[in-house]
Design brief:
The protein has helices at 2-32, 37-63, 69-101, 113-133, 142-163, 176-181, 188-220, 224-236, 238-249, 253-278, 285-307, 312-334. It has 335 residues and is mainly α. It has a single domain (2-334), classed as A middle domain of Talin 1 (Up-down Bundle), CATH 1.20.1420.30. Helix 3 packs antiparallel against helix 12.
Length: 335
């Protein structure tokens, strides 16, 4: 058990490192392509930092399907949108309040509302479809059709995102490969290999992470679905949390929140479509509850953006919702 915990910790560190490598490369790709801050945050950075929790269910279902792979996969798929819409947004709000109080940033949120509203609308629509898919008959073509529909939502989202281009964002931190090789170059010949290395590292880390989760579920006699619903998203969403907190400290609010809202759209399309197509997708009460809370809080943020002003304390409420929902899920599992 102790060995499994040690492996889990080192695997998480490795995944976070590779995610940072990937994200740094993605941000430089956006800079080279002269993309706006909204697109870099909601699309490039969001996809990059969403890859760990995306690959974990895929790896679980492909390599561990005969064991608890399906449970780990479904837990990771459902856990990511739930945690992003509650805890991750909540930490953004808390960080903003703390930075404001310490004088490190100005009060309130200065965001491009159109970017965040667009992301939240797409997420809500896609995730409602995902939850509804669990009630569709397992036989026939209904679920494959739903899976295809979920996948097709994302290209439409990309089209809408790129159609509303804005100003190019600030230059990101130095490219990691350039720091190591000291070539003084930010060309695609360095950017693309760094992105590929990050992706390979994330995939390898995801394999060992799933294997360790299964071992720990046996050690502690906790259902793999519950363990993956809680642990997988918290661990693999670390890049989003770290990046968003740093951006908030620098008053880059659109990048910070767009990183999270863009990941929400991605998570509600590709991983969910994979789960709908390749698992039974019979969601239990706890998983359905997490989905309902995710949709509710995304709708709450959208209403604040549309009819009032989204404030940091609105986001901070997500942390409380996350804690209460996790307690309810554990209670449902024990009863």
């Amino acid at each position: 058990m102790i060995l499994d915990l040690v492996i889990l910790v080192f695997t998480l560190i490795f995944i976070v490192f590779c995610s940072e490598l990937f994200t740094n490369g993605i941000e430089w790709l956006g800079q080279r392509l002269q993309l706006s801050e909204g697109v870099v945050g909601s699309v490039l950075a969001a996809v990059g930092t969403a890859l760990p929790e995306t690959l974990i269910p895929v790896v679980a279902l492909i390599f561990f399907g005969k064991q608890h792979g399906a449970e780990v996969g479904i837990g990771a798929i459902a856990g990511a949108p739930f945690m992003l819409s509650t805890l991750t947004f909540g930490l953004c709000g808390i960080s903003c309040l703390l930075f404001t109080r310490s004088g490190r940033r100005k009060p309130g949120l200065e965001i491009k509302k159109g970017v965040i509203k667009r992301d939240l609308r797409f997420f809500i629509a896609a995730y409602i479809l995902a939850m509804a898919a669990s009630f569709l008959p397992a036989q026939g073509y209904w679920r494959p059709v739903m899976a295809v529909l979920l996948v097709l939502i994302y290209p439409f989202y990309l089209w809408k995102s790129f159609a509303h281009e804005g100003e190019v964002g600030e230059e990101p931190e130095s490219l990691y490969l350039d720091r190591i090789l000291k070539l003084g170059s930010k060309r695609l010949r360095l950017i693309v290999p760094q992105i590929v290395l990050g992706l390979l590292g994330i995939s390898t880390g995801a394999y060992f992470f799933v294997e360790t989760i299964q071992n720990l579920s046996d050690d502690f006699h906790i259902p793999p679905l519950v363990l993956s619903l809680i642990i997988c998203p918290v661990a693999t969403e670390l890049p989003e949390k770290i990046n968003s907190v740093l951006w908030l400290r620098s008053n880059k609010d659109t990048l910070a929140l767009g990183n999270v809202s863009g990941a929400l759209v991605f998570q509600s399309c590709f991983p969910v479509a994979f789960g709908v197509a390749f698992t039974a997708w019979q969601l239990d009460a706890g998983t359905l509850l997490s989905g309902a809370v995710a949709i509710t809080f995304a709708s709450f943020y959208l209403l604040m953006l549309k009819f009032a002003r989204l404030e940091p304390w609105h986001l901070a409420l997500g942390s409380l919702a996350y804690a209460l929902t996790i307690a309810a899920i554990i209670h449902l599992d024990l009863t």
